[in-house]
Request: fold
Amino acid sequence: MLILGVESSCDETAVALVEDGRRVRANVIASQHELHEEYAGVVPEIASRAHAQRILPVLRRALDDSGAKLADIDAIAVGHRPGLIGSLLVGVAAAKALAWSLDKPLIGIDHLHAHLYAPFLAPDPPAPDDTHPALGLVVSGGHTALYRIDAPLDVTRLGATIDDAVGEAFDKVAAILELGHPGGPRIDTLATDGDDHAHDFPVSLLDKDSLDFSFSGLKTSVLYTVRGNPTARHSKNAFRRTAAELSEKEKADVAASFQRAAVTALTKKITRALDQWQTDPPRALIVGGGVSANSLLRHEAADLCRRTGLACLLPPMDLCLDNAAMIAGLAHHRATSRDFDDLSLEAAPAGIDA
Ligand code: KG4
Ligand code: ZN
Reply:
C-alpha cells in the first residue's frame, strides 16, 4: 500500500511517499529557516505564505523521486494537528484537493504521534508489534511530552511541559548566546568545545511524582548567567552585558552546561516514568521530534536503554525534524483498517491529547 503524506505544521513544507508503513520511497522537505532567521523565531504569516508557494513544487518533486504516478497512490495523509493554524491549513487544503480530485481516501494524523513513528522508518527497525508497550518521549520545538504507547495509534499522554518546550529552550538559549536560528543544532555543536560542569544550571523535576516538565527556570538562569542580573524591569537596558562580551570558550561552557541540564531533566523523567509503570512492562524507549537529533540525548537514551534492558528506538537523523514520511508511515496503520476521514477534516492548533 502506497501512502502520500503532507506535512506543513510549522516551518517545513514536506511531502513523502511511504510503502506499507516501512519503506520511504520519497521524502522531500523544503525548510524555511532562512526566511525566519532575522526574527530569531518562526513568524506565522511568513510561514503560511511560504507553504502556499512551495507545496506544489515539493509535491511534484516527491512524485518524481518516488517514480510513482498519482494513480498508484492508495491514500492521502496529512498532519492536521497540532501546529500553527495558518501553516496547517495549507497542507490540509492541499491534501483534501488531492483526495477529492483523485478520489482517494483522506487520513488526518496527529503530528506528535507521527514523531513517535519516525524510528520505525529507519532502514532496519524492529516491527512495531515487537516493541510495544513502549515509553515514548516527544522532544520538539513546540512540545515536550511522555507517552505510554500500546500500538502506533494507541498512545496515552503521561505528562507534558507546563511552560517552554525543550526545543524552544535550546532556541532561546541560542538567541541569548547570539548563535542564530534554529538554535538546537548550534548549541549541540558548540557544546562539544565546552565544559558541561562550568555552570550548575537548575534541573527542574517539579513534584516528587510528576511526569511533567518545566524549562523556563533553566532558560532564565542561562539568561542571567550570560547577561548579568537585570537592573531594571521592562527596560531595553535592563541587563549589564550581552553575549558579545563572552569569549568563545565561555559561550561553549554555557552551551555545554545548559545542554547537560536540559538532557538530565529528560532522562530523569524517563527513569521516573519507568519506575511508575503499571502492568505489562515496557519493551522499548521511543524518542521523536527535532531534539532527538541532539547528540547528548541520543547518547544518554542509548545508555539508559542498555542499563534497563529496553530496546532504544531513535529516528534516523534525517527523520528527527519535521517531515512527511512519519505522517505517511503512521497513516498506513489507519489505512489497513480502512479508518478514513472525510473532506470535513479540520486543521487544529492543539494536539489530540491536549
Ligand atoms: O520537531 P521539530 O522539527 O519541529 C516541531 O515540531 O517543533 O523540532 C524543531 C526543534 C527546534 O527547536 C530545534 O532547535 C530543535 O528541534 N533541534 C535540536 C537539534 N536539532 C534540532 N535541539 C537540540 N539539538 C539538536 N541537534
Ligand atoms: Zn515536529
Observations:
- The two ends are 31 Å apart (CA to CA).
